[in-house]
C-alpha cells in the first residue's frame, strides 16, 4: 500500500493538474455564476444554484483524481517498476487489492477536499441525515469512477493515446450530464447521451442525497455500487493476467 501511495503522489505535476480545475471551477462559481443564476428548479422545487452545482464540481474532482490513478498504471509500466515488483515474493491478490484500495482512497480524499473547499465558499443548510447521504454517495461514486478509469487504462498500451482519450472523455462526460443545468433544459442530444452517462448517476446520487436524503439517493447508490463491483472484478483479472506475462 505504501508503494502505491508513493506511485500516486510523487508526481507533483499530475496532482497539481488534478486539483487545479476543481479549484478554478469553485472560484468561478463563488465570484460569478452562483450570483448570476440564483435559483433553478429541480424535481419540482426551487433550490439555490450552489446546492445544485456543487455535486457536479465534486464529480469533476473525482474524474481528475481517477485520471491520476489510471496514469499510475502507465508510470508503473514505463518505469519498469512492474518487473522490479514481481522480483519480490508478492502475492498477485495483494498487489491488486493494494492498487484498488489506495487509488480509491486518493479519489475519495480529493473529493472530500473539494467538498471542504466548497463549504468555505458556500453555505449549505442540509440536515445531518442528508450530510450522511452525501458522504456515502461520495464514497460509492469514488469507488465506481476509480474502477471505470482504471479499467479503461488496462485497454491501452500507449500512454499518449490514453492521455488524449481521457482528456477528451472527462469533459464530455461532465457536460453531457445534468451537471450545471437541469435535465429538462438540456439539448435533446445531450439529454439522450446523459441516460447512458455514468457521471449522470454519480451527480444524481450526491445531489439527491444532499437535497432529499437516503430515500432518493439509494437507487443511484446501488447502481454505482454495482459498477464498482463489476469494474473491480474486471480490473483484477486484467492486472493478474498482466502479472503472469512478466
TrEMBL record:
It is found in: Cell membrane; Membrane. The keyword Transport applies. One of its GO terms (biological process) is response to antibiotic. Residues 13-242 form the ABC transmembrane type-2 domain. Its main location: membrane. The chain crosses the membrane at residues 12-32, 52-74, 95-124, 130-152, 164-183, 217-236. InterPro entries: ABC2_TM, ABC2_TM_bact-type, ABC_2_transport, Nod_factor_ABC_transporter. It is a multi-pass membrane protein. Keywords: Antibiotic resistance, Cell membrane, Membrane, Transmembrane, Transmembrane helix, Transport. GO terms for molecular function: ABC-type transporter activity. It comes from the Bacteria. The keyword Zinc does not apply. One of its GO terms (cellular component) is ATP-binding cassette (ABC) transporter complex. Belongs to the ABC-2 integral membrane protein family. This is Transport permease protein. It comes from Streptomyces sparsogenes DSM 40356.
